[in-house]
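Continuing the batch. This is chain 6 of the set; chains 1 through 5 are on the previous pages. Same settings as before, nothing changed between runs. Recording input and output for traceability.
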Amino acid sequence: MANFTTMTGFLLMGFPRKPELEILFGSFFLALYLVALTGNVLIIVATSMNHSLYTPMYFFLKHLSLLDLCYISVTVPRSICNSFMHSRYISLWECIMQCFAFTVCGSTEMAMLTIMSYDRYVAICLPLHYEAIMDARTCVCGVLAVWASGIISGVMHTAATFSIHFCGANVIHQFFCDASQILKLSCSNEYVSELGVAGFLSLMAFFCFISIGLTYIRIFSTVLRTPSSESRDRAFSTCLTHLCVVILFLSTGVFEFLKPHSESPSALDILLTVFYTVLPPTFNPIIYSLRNESMKAALRKIFQRRKDYFFC
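Output for chain 6:
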């Protein structure tokens, strides 16, 4: 029997062991990572440099992009490195840190999307009180609270996961240290405490989901009563952008939660994991930049400024 004190590492067995397939998957992940890196960095730069975007909505969007960068950087770079080097080993402490960081980013993103929906609710349903409610202090405190909740969730989840004893082979059938796969290595029923933590975190995620749903019911009912078609279109455009991001993140996570878990995950299981770990950070910047006119204008200014600089 191996436990926290004697086990030195794990083997990540998410992808086929053929070298040519490892290179293919590594290249695919590298392409997605570069797209996510470029898109999120552009949003962070645009919202930081353009004074017209110094509003609560873009303040939260900047932190969402920063969070997406962290979220995809937790799992993908290590997977790319392992694929190109044909290595599957990850040390115990690296696995602990990866599990912790992944839980922090996932929990924080859920909370961030919730506070962003509240910002849209105040802007559309309480426009006269918007500046008073969503002032700079409230925005900063909101972001700090979101990150604090994620860190607390990460500490609870990681501590419960790695407090168990491990039996048998140290093989994780995933391309990163997935807590659900690590629990399959536990002895007898020692993972009961982890199930309690997972249940609590699931309850908090469900609360965020219900909050977002109720918020958008109020938003859409208010928008539909707006007499001006131009105001309705502008409100729908802003809200649908955020709603697309929420649906992308929640739907991929729900698929992973509801799908039947097997002892040895199939190619479909790995694909579903890619959906909720890689796709949201990759497509969030695309969704915001394509549907948001202010963001597109800010990005055009940045590229024009760079063009003028190079041709001076």
